[in-house]
UniProtKB/TrEMBL annotation:
It comes from Acetobacter orientalis. Belongs to the GSP F family. Signal peptide: none annotated. It is found in: Cell membrane. Its main location: membrane. InterPro entries: GspF/PilC (IPR003004), T2SS_GspF_dom (IPR018076), T2SS_GspF_sf (IPR042094). Residues 37-155 form the Type II secretion system protein GspF domain. This is Integral membrane protein PilR. One of its GO terms (cellular component) is plasma membrane. The lineage of its organism: Bacteria, Pseudomonadati, Pseudomonadota, Alphaproteobacteria, Acetobacterales. It is a multi-pass membrane protein. Keywords: Cell membrane, Membrane, Plasmid, Transmembrane, Transmembrane helix. The chain crosses the membrane at residues 142-160, 180-206, 343-363.
Length: 370
């Protein structure tokens, strides 16, 4: 009697399907590709073309340039849109951030999807540029520090030991050389690895804290970058999404409750829950709740603008119009903070390099016979 062994490939196929979807979403529908698609779609919709046709044409173009992941993602969206009969916003919901979904939904409700797409492109482009500029502020000082470490490492292995023997042979001493030898301990492999690990750990801790850290300490930290930059950018994205939902008729407390439940950021959830609870328990308006919670969210300037306009006729439209002013203000303030960060870090780095140069000059002077 033979025994037949049957292998079940369902698990492997499901795993491959999840992997393909993950790759399609992360690579084929990345922010850069998504914004390019939104711009094309906005232009085509104004010319009267159908969304399905735009998706298929875009997928064909992606295939011509071997962008397999983008083509596969666009065809998946077109298939869901066609087979399940959902709206464009709900079709994209699993694959895009919540604020983008809300803006698309409000655009569909107002029968003005092209304007919603344009707003997403403008907002995301500005935010991405600010984030890139802030990260770049640390590159130059990191280069200076790397130069210092490499210089000390080379000096510790070659020049300084020879100089120390020379001074010892001559029966003289050099305070500058002693300081230099102490500093060269930074250039040893264990210390260098320790410093790199410490800096990487600090960077990771800061990055981890941005969407997660809560409480009053977090509010205090938000007076300085990078926490202030994160608050301004995320607060701006949130208020645009919030106003878009209110504009289509959803009650403000319901919007806050839904956003708090759907948020993946403990930091944002804390703020939205605090606003909603204050509005419900105290029976106050949104700007009053923003003032009472003392969280400075979305940021102090926007809170004042909301307080001035809230309750007027067409307040949601007015505030959405003002959002262009807000993002300009955020850009100016963020760039000013970036200049301060770059200036301080560059100053410290240059001072380290300058200190090494001065010590080398003093060592040379100590070697001159008196």
């Amino acid at each position: 009697m033979g025994i037949e062994i049957v292998f079940d490939d369902n698990t492997r196929e499901e795993s491959e399907g999840r992997l393909n979807l993950w790759l399609d979403q992360r690579i084929g529908f990345s922010l850069k590709r998504r914004l390019a698609f939104y711009r094309t779609l906005s232009r085509k919709l104004r010319n009267g073309e159908m969304i399905n046709r735009v998706l298929l044409n875009r997928a064909e173009q992606a295939e011509k340039f071997s962008n397999v992941w983008e083509a596969r993602m666009l065809r998946r969206i077109e298939r869901i849109l066609n087979d399940e009969g959902t709206t464009f916003a709900y079709t994209l919901q699993p694959y895009i951030p919540e604020d983008e979904f809300t803006m698309l939904l409000s655009g569909e409700q107002a029968d003005d999807l092209p304007s919603a797409l344009d707003m997403i492109c403008d907002t995301r482009t500005r935010v991405a540029a600010l984030q890139k500029e802030f990260r770049g502020a640390w590159v130059e000082p990191a280069g200076y520090i790397a130069i210092v470490v490499v210089t000390l490492s080379i000096a510790a292995q070659s020049a300084l030991p020879q100089l120390a023997r020379t001074f010892e042979h001559n029966g003289t001493s050099s305070t500058a050389l002693s300081l230099m030898l102490t500093m060269t301990q930074i250039g040893t492999i264990p210390v260098t690895l320790g410093l790199v690990g410490l800096m990487a750990g600090a960077a990771f801790a800061v990055r981890w804290s941005l969407p997660r850290m809560r409480g009053r300490v977090r509010v205090w930290l938000e007076v300085a970058p990078p926490w202030s930059v994160y608050r301004d950018i995320q607060g701006y994205l949130w208020i645009c999404s919030f106003l878009a939902q209110c504009k289509i008729g959803v009650a403000d407390v319901d919007v806050l409750e839904n956003q708090a439940e759907e948020s993946r950021s403990p930091w944002l959830t804390e703020r939205l829950s605090a606003l909603r609870d204050t509005m419900v328990d105290e029976g106050v308006t949104l700007p009053r709740a923003m003032d009472m919670t003392r969280l400075n969210f979305p940021n102090p300037e926007i809170v004042r603008e909301i307080d001035d306009v809230w309750g007027d006729e067409g307040d949601y439209d007015t505030l959405l119009t003002h959002s262009l002013i807000w993002v300009n203000q955020i850009e100016d303030r963020t760039r000013a903070q970036i200049r301060v960060v770059r200036g301080v870090t560059n100053f410290v780095s240059i001072m380290l390099v300058g200190a090494i140069v001065l010590l080398e000059i003093f060592i040379g002077q100590d070697m001159i016979p008196r």
